[in-house]
UniProtKB/TrEMBL annotation:
Listed SUPFAM superfamilies: Xylose isomerase-like
InterPro entries attached to this UniProt entry: HyI-like (IPR026040), Sugar_Epim/Isomerase (IPR050417), Xyl_isomerase-like_sf (IPR036237), Xyl_isomerase-like_TIM-brl (IPR013022)
Sequence similarity: Belongs to the hyi family.
Keywords assigned by UniProt, alphabetized: Isomerase
GO molecular function: hydroxypyruvate isomerase activity
UniProt-recorded name of the protein: TIM barrel protein
Lineage: Bacteria, Pseudomonadati, Pseudomonadota, Alphaproteobacteria, Rhodobacterales
BP term (GO), one: glyoxylate metabolic process
Catalytic residues in the record: E137 (proton donor/acceptor), E234 (proton donor/acceptor)
Length: 250
């Protein structure tokens, strides 16, 4: 059975931000991820992690003021200055919070120039912070119309061109299912590139068991592939209290 973590940007979001850490720990989680920790002083987040004995797996780069804004500049030709500024800011948070990974968001752009910019920017980030693990994650175009990285084949093409050991794939079973129709098949093809895993049940992006996806088979496939990292629950609970949506874990 994989080890499960909680994405507290989606899980426990019925609680104020700083209360979610205690709730996650009380529900049995030992690790969390936070998509955008930038609205709170890093020291406060650090305190909440430490006082609840939680490991931080992942933050996103960028951005502060993300809500309703542009989801990243990595694949935006001409956006290199803003990209580097955002990465430096994420790394300042990372110095204190020590996330295992930073998910670098691509932004809204398409085409060959965008791909070249994306590759160059990822190489820059990888070389600027060689001690930091970075990830890229394909997002389905229903949720993120126009987002550059909308396909797993494209993600692998990019990773091969970037060719840095500290840049890898973030496999999100929900997006894989929405994009390619069969998350298990995507995992079979690309698990060797996976540095981090997230889960949610398509099509509603709620907890496992709320849609047709076979999570028992998927968890078995994670184990069988030799993946030993975290599997992070990243979904919107169908229940009022997040705790009541966690039955799938057992
Ligand atoms: O799957 C998602 O939507 C997230 O992992 C993410 O990083 C986009 O904000
Ligand atoms: Mg995800």
């Amino acid at each position: 059975m994989p080890k499960f973590a909680a994405n507290i940007s989606l899980l426990f979001s019925e609680l104020p931000y700083l209360d979610r850490f205690r709730a996650a720990a009380a529900a049995g989680f030992e690790a969390v991820e936070i998509l955008y920790p930038y609205d709170t002083a890093a020291k406060e987040t650090q305190r909440a992690l430490m006082s609840n004995g939680l490991e931080l797996l992942l933050i996103n780069a960028p951005p502060p003021n993300y809500t309703g804004g542009v989801p990243g500049y990595a694949a935006i030709p001409g956006g290199e200055g803003r990209f580097q500024h955002d990465i430096r800011r994420s790394l300042r948070y990372a110095e204190l919070l020590r996330p295992g990974m930073i998910h670098v968001m691509a932004g809204y752009e398409k085409g060959a120039e965008a791909q070249q910019a994306y590759i160059r920017n990822l190489q820059w980030a990888a070389d600027w912070a060689p001690q930091q693990q970075f990830t890229i994650e394909p997002l389905n175009s229903g949720d993120q119309p126009g987002y550059f990285l909308d396909d797993y084949n494209l993600a692998i093409e990019v990773l091969e061109a970037v060719d840095r050991a500290n840049v890898g794939l973030q496999f999100d079973a929900y997006h894989a299912q929405m994009i390619h129709g069969d998350a298990a098949q995507v995992w079979d093809r690309f698990s060797a590139h996976a540095r981090h895993v997230q889960i949610g049940a398509a099509p509603a992006r709620s907890e496992p068991g709320t849609g047709p996806m076979d999570f028992a088979a998927l968890f078995a496939a994670f184990d069988a592939s030799g993946y030993s990292g975290w599997v992070s629950a990243e979904y919107t609970p169908s229940t009022r209290r997040t705790e009541d949506s966690l039955g799938w874990m057992s």
